Amino acid sequence: xxxxxxxxxxxxxxxxxxxxxxxxxxxxxxxxxxxxxxxxxxxxxxxxxxxxxxxxxxxxxxxxxxxxxxxxxxxxxxxxxxxxxxxxxxxxxxxxxxxxxxxxxxxxxxxxxxxxxxxxxxxxxxxxxxxxxxxxxxxxxxxxxxxxxxxxxxxxxxxxxxxxxxxxxxxxxxxxxxxxxxxxxxxxxxxxxxxxxxxxxxxxxxxxxxxxxxxxxxxxxxxxxxxxxxxxxxxxxxxxxxxxxxxxxxxxxxxxxxxxxxxxxxxxxxxxxxxxxxxxxxxxxxxxxxxxxxxxxxxxxxxxxxxxxxxxxxxxxxxxxxxxxxxxxxxxxxxxxxxxxxxxxxxxxxxxxxxxxxxxxxxxxxxxxx
Length: 370
What we know:
Blueprint: E1 2-7, H1 18-32, E2 36-41, E3 50-53, E4 56-60, H2 67-79, E5 86-91, E6 106-110, H3 124-134, H4 137-141, E7 146-148, H5 151-160, E8 167-169, E9 192-196, H6 205-217, E10 223-227, H7 233-243, E11 249-253, H8 257-266, E12 269-272, H9 281-288, E13 293-296, H10 301-304, E14 311-314, H11 319-330, H12 333-347, H13 352-368
């Protein structure tokens, strides 16, 4: 097949995240299987307008805030004549409304929609713009074949007006050969919990910091390691200082994949306080390492964490319940081991090869619809 993927960013972009990992893991595999894959995405300072990565041709146009305006003109000038077998809009951040300017067959790929959670992250004008741009999704995309990375995302799309029968759920994967337990690496001697990912306000990492402070008040000692970079870091550091838990909360900054894996292997559990995620890849990465996760009982996360089997779920925003969950594991290494074993077994069902197989089959159906 000859495929075109349109996404806001590629993995080389400094602002890339889980959606870009998914893009390269899936479509890089399809490229290595012999499919022709072209990616149209935004540029960034220092980026080449034309590139290649993971077997994919990459075209960059516009920038972080102008790609939505630059994508359609670039497509018409440089790509429309190529007659792709299928085009995929990887809806990431805001819709590009490709049905109005891309030749079909066209498919939609959705990780998650922001909805009102945009107001927890961005300034009021940007949040309002994101919310308003999501409103026409059912009108623009209804009837198109779609992929969602979780049942929660499919349910969200259906609630907004898309047809359930048009949406195929294909879960994300992880590299279970890379993320795996290492008998030579043991958990930290002290109860240590890990938050890993971009430091964004909407992810509510401050709830984990507040939970640590509550446990300090109970004379329960736990440590929290925060790995990652992002624009919420100054606020999080201020929260640590205000609550007086600087001796119990460590900022590890950016970590490599090997560094992340090492932290996951040593942690007693990872922590995910976010109100909404497409799936929660880091939860499965930790699970593959034999480490459970404590997460909000929120869309996406409730699918990548099985309560009392691979980790613990608590009501989102309930800091007291989060503190209780941390205390429960901090006081019971046997429970940590039990949940870790369940998590490792659970993770084996989610591989990138499986996700690529299902995506390949789905796009073959889309291409055949021409």
